[in-house]
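Re: beginner question about structure tokens

> Can someone show what the tokenized structure looks like for a real chain? I only ever see the sequence side.

Sure, here's an example I had lying around. Input first:
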Amino acid sequence: MKLRDKLESFLDGKAIDGTRAISRWRAKKLGHTTMANIKHYRFEAGSRLHGTWHTEGAHVPRLGFIGAHSYLNSLSHIWNEAFIGRYTSIGCRVSIGAARHPMSAVSTSPALSSTARDYTDYEAKSVRQHRNMRRSVVIGSDVWIGDGAIIMPGITISDGAVVGANAVVTKNVAPYEIVGGVPAKTMGRRFSDELAERLLTTQWWEYPHEYLKTCPTGNVFDFLEAFEGGGKAPTVLDTFRIQKAKHAIAALLRFRMGS
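And the corresponding structure tokens:
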């Protein structure tokens, strides 16, 4: 499956077809390192998870995905469902998709949560309600999220976007848009509309990593000239998940190997 097909499966609430279960040792051989305390997420080779991925209240088959050469740095947290594309850089102390507390109920405490009928239109005028109740977060490819940023649930951060350090993102971020502040607002764009459109059209993150390393990625004009005339075909990357150790000896070996 191509990356966009994997995203479609995620948005449809389905597990990614063809996912292979492998050991932590095998994952490490493929360049995937993880400190996450769960094994339900899916990943591609070369991705790194040095933060925590929480499952409370999540729909586990679609819990999440992290693409090739993307990373989540230490002390960062992903809460429940999230999809992260390829070549995306997420800094330290980032919070992604933390659940909202119910401000329209009697108490904001989850200790008093319960099912309830919806407010009527007349009643709704007297209470504060969240407009976007979608939980899952989608982060595109080639996204950079700075240290300390907070990404609210239900947010989409599109390909090529940049989120400044300590920003609080409460609205969707457009492709190649730069946002920062509390709440996050537009601070500019990485490229002109024309360049951004050309880059989005290439979908370069769908192409072999070995080929991309031969391209002049330091200059966007030279890259587009080389890429658009390169004639290379997109690649299909395998999707993996980490399987649990089957017995105590396997768990001990895993611990001894430092994975």
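Each token stands for a local structural state, so reading them left to right follows the chain. Residues 3-104+118-256 form a domain with the UDP N-Acetylglucosamine Acyltransferase; domain 1 fold (CATH 2.160.10.10).
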